[in-house]
Specification:
- The complex is a heterodimer of chains A (260) and B (636).
- Chain A is of the alpha+beta class.
- Chain A contains eight helices and seven strands; from the N terminus they run ααααααααβββββββ.
- Chain A has three domains: 112 residues, Serine Threonine Protein Phosphatase 5, Tetratricopeptide repeat; 73 residues; 62 residues, SH3 type barrels.
- Chain A has a five-stranded antiparallel beta sheet. Chain A has a two-stranded antiparallel ribbon with strand order 2-3.
- In chain A, strand 4 and strand 5 form a beta hairpin.
- In chain A, helix 3 runs antiparallel to helix 4.
- About 3% of the residues of chain A have low confidence.
- Chain B contains ten helices and 32 strands.
- About 8% of the residues of chain B have low confidence.
- In chain B, the strands form ten sheets. In chain B, strands 11, 12, 14, 15 and 16 form a five-stranded antiparallel beta sheet that branches. In chain B, strands 1-3-5-4 form a four-stranded antiparallel beta sheet.
- With 636 residues, chain B is of the alpha+beta class.
- Chain B folds into four domains: 106 residues, Immunoglobulin-like (Sandwich); 166 residues, no CATH class; 147 residues, Sandwich (Immunoglobulin-like); 118 residues, Four Helix Bundle (Hemerythrin (Met), subunit A) (Up-down Bundle).
- Classes of the chains: A alpha+beta (260), B alpha+beta (636).
- At the A-B interface, helix 1, helix 3, helix 5, helix 7 and helix 8 of A face strand 31, helix 4 and helix 5 of B.
Chain lengths: 260, 636
């Protein structure tokens, strides 16, 4: 019986390893060649061609902060502020501590994207945004593992000293696990549950209802980051700006930030 | 009565009740009635009336009517729904009323098509409604203003209404009755009240006019009325300016200026009443005071004014973009010399009298030697002598494409001057500029973007980023994973179960360990089968060797130690009779007890009086012992 379980576990591990390696190994060389070609085109100021390659790589499943950052730069050079901001936001989600991404995004995004959070929430926001969604997921996973390990030692331990130490370590890791879990939940809400989009054109007209017949409320600059708060209806979607104002925008004027 | 008969009887009653219900519903459905009305049916332009559709019938869930098209009116409120139900003589009747607040600006007779409801597939229509919009003037308006269509004020007290006719009115005055389309008109609303009228309060009437056929700009809105005296004919009036706006017509033809209204509180004397604490007018009448005076509310609508908006004459100049006004036109560059790296701002400025914010961008001639970017417009509006004026600047960002002396050609801009009633062609002077060779890398130019980090010198239409964006990156390894975050991947979520499974396993293990350590009997019971299996294995080895003494010694010990472990007794002191007694107490069958007794007796006799048992007999005893242990373990 024990032998059967071991064989089964080994088979699962082998299958997972093969599945992960197959995806990366098949295309790695090709991806690198394409990426370098795009960088060469960018150097020669052929930004449109470079952008085309970056976008094709992204479509092929290469989801990398560097790729998205370079695509954002190509958009910026072409005068497409909406596209640049969109790519920088996507890149920042993957690499939140990258200085280049932050600086370029701050240069290009309109002031309306800035949020004025309550001062007590700012440190929490800073902690939340220090790690990417995947980093928070790994952090929570590791803390869960360590908590369970400490719990296991506490259960298996014979001496009072070992049990006491294991209990203290468990409490520490459990608290860290709960805190990280809270940050992960916020991150999941922000990046997975809430759908957001970027206005692609300059002076995108925001209206009070889903149609041309509704009142014009205000114009949004290209690169305005909005939250989508309703399902599309007749080619229009209800959005909320970072400052809390809501309006309707045509679907053709925005592109989604979330890609999953 | 059998159960079957009872069921049949119940089914019959239920069918009868259902039939009655359907029949009754059918009867009620036939009684549904629909009627439409307008209240009041005769109104002045801009006055609100309520169009109501009443559905009556004997059913609680009355169908919703399909209201007719009301495109000819402006909807001010609704549709609102109210309903009431009555139960008289065992019969239910209901009424649902749908009402819409409407108004119309143009005089005439308006027909409202019937509303419809559908009942049982049949369409029932209401009556048609006719609304008359008439322009009625107050009867006692002073003679110099007789030609103006000034309505009388409306009040709930008919006597007061009669008394105020010609003594209290709101006059609409326009600066021009027949403007050209795009030509601004100043509209003033002035309140006239005969001297001595005790006005105590005022406010703007609801709803406020929308001026949908004009571009509107407010230039004055009174916060408090400041009166001055004027003589009209033989009478003296107090007048106060209530509101002043500038309207720019956007379409040609007869266009009515939406009327507005003010609500005036007039102080009147009432008879003294006997007062108690509960009918104290201070509590029940916000306009009253303790001396028997109270304020009556009066609605004063403005006079009716129709503009005849003239179209612009044909033919129009080729470079005419629709700008109407009395303007001048000029062009200027933001610098006298530049390099090829610089961005220049060419300002095309239109200034003068008119709705300057509606001035459109001049058409640029071919700009040889320059690359043209997006244009940003700035407006500086002023109101001078109740008329709009100001300037509008179109800032065009240019980038020189070659060095040397370049010329920005003359830009022509045609406007329509309503005072002169003709088109005027304006031209800017050509501008010459020396362009030097560029020395540094060309700046990043991004159209239509404004940010805090950018230079705002060109008005933000096109910006040059002072600090260029950071350069692209080289990647060592690119992450190819489809972009799905870990938290959404099945394998990642599954692996999160492993630590939990580990923790649960250690918990169960520790519980079991503690239990075994605290209960020796349990520990022996749990290991009884394993220990017996080991001994049987040794017995089997002796069997294979043909050593009957050793075989029976192991077999006997296996059985005794198994039952000793199961009953927490020492195997060496356990006699056959004691063991069989215990088995009988534990409800073992007689066959099992006999088998155990026989096996142990055989083992003992083989030990104490050695005899050569055949291999087959030993094999049989081995199997018997094996089954005894297995069956007993299964049972427990």
């Amino acid at each position: 019986m024990r032998r059967r379980i071991l064989i089964l576990l080994n088979s699962i591990a082998l299958f997972l390893a093969l599945a992960v390696c197959a995806n990366a190994a098949l295309t790695r060389a090709e991806i690198k060649a394409q990426f370098e070609r795009a960088a060469g085109l960018y150097d020669q100021k052929q930004f449109a061609k470079a952008l085309e390659i970056y976008e094709s790589l992204e479509l092929a499943g290469v989801h990398d902060a560097v790729l998205l950052y370079n695509a954002g730069n190509a958009c910026a050079r072409l005068g497409d502020i909406g596209g640049a901001v969109l790519y920088y936001i996507r890149a920042k989600r993957l690499a939140p501590r990258d200085r280049d991404i932050k600086e370029n995004l701050n240069r290009l995004q309109p002031a309306v994207n800035q949020t004025n959070a309550f001062f007590l929430f700012k440190p929490l926001g800073w902690i939340k945004n220090s790690l990417s969604l995947d980093e928070w997921s790994l952090c929570v996973s590791i803390l869960l593992f360590l908590s369970c390990l400490a719990l296991g030692v506490r259960f298996l331990g014979r001496s009072a000293r070992v049990i006491g130490a294991a209990r203290s370590i468990f409490v520490l890791f459990a608290i860290l696990f709960i805190l990280s879990g809270a940050f992960l939940s916020f991150k999941v809400y922000e990046e997975v549950i809430v759908k957001s989009a970027v206005a692609m054109k300059a002076d995108t007209l925001a209206r009070s209802g889903p149609g041309e017949q509704f009142e014009e409320l205000y114009k949004l600059p290209a690169g305005t980051h909005v939250r989508v708060i309703s399902a599309p209806q007749g080619g229009w979607v209800r959005i909320r700006l970072m400052d809390g104002r809501s309006a309707y925008l045509p679907l053709t004027e925005i592109r989604p930030v979330n890609i999953f | 009565m059998t159960v079957k008969e009872m069921m049949k009887s119940h089914l019959k009653i239920m069918a009868l009740v259902a039939g009655l219900l359907l029949w009754t519903l059918g009867l009620w459905a036939q009684n549904v009635d629909i009627a439409a009305s307008a209240e009041p049916s005769t109104v002045t332009p801009g006055e609100e009336f309520i169009y109501s559709v009443r559905v009556q019938g004997g059913i609680s869930n009355l169908p919703k009517p399909q209201l007719p098209a009301l495109d000819q009116f402006e909807i001010l409120s609704g549709p609102n729904q109210s309903q009431s139900f009555q139960f008289i003589n065992g019969r239910m009747s209901g009424e649902v009323q749908y009402s819409v607040g409407l108004r119309c600006m143009k005089p005439g007779d308006y027909k409202i098509a019937p509303a419809e409801i559908k009942v049982n597939g049949k369409t029932i229509k209401s009556n048609e409604v006719i609304v008359k919009v008439t322009q009625t003037s107050a009867a006692n308006i002073p003679s110099p203003l007789k030609d103006e269509k000034i309505p009388a004020p409306s009040a709930s007290n008919p006597d007061l209404r009669k008394q105020l006719d010609g003594k209290l009115f709101l006059r609409t005055e326009v600066s021009k009755a027949n403007p050209f389309v795009g030509e601004p008109v100043t509209v003033s609303y002035t309140l006239y009240a005969q001297k001595g009228l005790p006005l105590v309060q005022w406010g703007l009437g609801e709803p406020q006019p929308q001026f949908r056929e004009f571009m509107k700009e407010d230039i004055f809105q009174a916060e408090r009325l400041s009166f001055r005296e004027v003589a009209i004919g033989s009478e003296t009036f107090q007048t106060a300016l209530v509101k002043k706006i500038i309207l720019t017509p956007t379409k040609t033809g007869k266009t009515i200026i939406d009327p507005m209204s003010v609500v005036i509180g007039l102080q009147t004397q009432t008879q003294q009443r006997r007062r108690s604490f509960f009918n104290d007018p201070f509590f029940d009448d916000p306009f009253g005071d303790p001396f028997g005076r109270r304020a009556e509310q009066v609605n004063v609508p403005s006079s009716f004014v129709e503009l005849d908006v003239l179209p612009l004459p044909e033919p129009r100049p080729a470079d005419f973009t629709g700008t109407v006004g009395d303007y001048t036109f000029s062009a200027k560059l933001d610098r006298a010399s530049a390099t090829m790296d610089d961005l220049l701002t060419l300002s095309l400025i239109i200034s003068g009298k008119g709705s300057v914010e509606s001035a459109l961008q001049p058409k640029l001639p071919p700009m040889d030697g320059f690359e043209v970017y997006e244009t940003k417009a700035k407006t500086d509006k002023k109101i001078i002598a109740d008329a709009p004026s100001g300037s509008r600047s179109f800032d065009v960002v240019l980038r020189p494409q070659k060095s040397g002396e370049l010329e920005i050609p003359s830009v022509s801009y045609s406007i329509f001057n309503p005072e002169k009633k003709q088109y005027v062609s304006l031209k800017s002077e050509p501008i010459k500029i020396n362009i030097a060779e560029g020395t540094s890398k060309a700046p990043l130019v991004i159209a239509g973007h404004v940010s805090q980090q950018t230079t705002a010198g060109n008005g933000g239409a096109v910006v040059e980023i002072n600090a260029d964006i950071n350069y692209i990156k080289q990647a060592k390894e690119l992450r190819a994973g489809g972009g799905r975050p870990l938290i959404l991947r099945g394998w990642f979520l599954l692996t999160q179960m492993l630590p939990l499974v580990f923790a649960a396993s250690t918990f169960m293990f520790s519980r079991r360990r503690d239990a075994l350590e605290s209960d020796r009997g349990l520990a022996r019971r749990l290991r009884a089968r394993g220990a017996a299996a080991k001994r049987l294995k040794q017995a089997a080895a002796a069997l294979n060797k043909g050593d009957s003494d050793a075989f029976y010694a192991e077999l006997g010990f296996a059985l005794r130690s198994f039952f000793g472990d199961m009953f927490n007794r020492e195997p060496h002191g356990l006699t056959i009779d004691e063991l069989v007694n215990i088995l009988e107490e534990r409800n073992s069958s007689q066959d099992e007890c006999d088998a155990v007794r026989a096996l142990l007796e055989q083992a003992d006799s083989a030990r104490y009086s050695p005899s050569n048992q055949s291999r087959d007999e030993m094999q049989r005893d081995y199997e018997k012992a094996f089954h005894v242990i297995q069956n007993f373990r299964k049972k427990t």
